[in-house]
What we know:
Family: Belongs to the NipSnap family.
Protein name: Protein NipSnap
Distance between the termini: 27 Å
Domain NIPSNAP: 78-135, 191-242
Order of helices and strands: EHHEHEEHHEEHEE
Region (Disordered): 27-46
CATH topology: Alpha-Beta Plaits
Shape: globular
Organism: Sipha flava (yellow sugarcane aphid)
Amino acid sequence: MFNSVMKRYVVSCAKHIAAVPSQSRCLSTSPATCKSNQPAGDAENNANEGWLKKLLVRRIEPTKEQHSRMLSDKEVIYELQTHNVRPDSIDGYLKNYEQAVQLCQKIPNLQYELIGSWSVHVGDLDQYVHLWKHQGGYAAIDKTNDILLNNQEYTKLCNQRGPFLRSRHLQYMLAFSFWPNIEFKSGSNIYEIRSYSLKPGTMIEWGNNWARAINHRRSNDEPFAGFFSQVGRLYNVHHFWC
Length: 242
């Protein structure tokens, strides 16, 4: 099997940190439950067909090809920032990061989109997690870093943030193709991040098993995002649940 080590965090949206502009959000709703007018036989056939769709998913066979090419789109790269903040500096940190997000949204031609920011309430306390999206592969990341490093206002905010932090970590990740597309949830929600360290060589097996399992949880609108690491700690998997 996977010989995985799992870490679980319960997180909630950080209210003080600016998120993506409202016009870029979409609302995910569950279909209303209503009485069906179709014959009982048709309803039973549809139910059986639904179960078959959950069980019959595309299986990826292990090959010599890189697992990242088979499990994901390499043109869209996600950046996971983990910041461990000093307990006495949380207000200053949140204000500083909000200003940095607002600045990034104003810089023209910057393909750097904030997907979400969370504060950890169970697990590593005083920790904040930020998920960013790069469109255009690693070339886009190089371009983004070059633009930001040459922006005096941005570098000033980064320097001011240093005293607020105890430590920080960054990973570049790819999204699993079998997970649902990321859709922003309305209202106040609790998110759970489950992180796994896999045994090398088991990523394809992991993907095949979760491609079947994820279908059983879609009806509850729980899956938010699923990623595997590319740069940083390798053989890491992160599942975000809402």
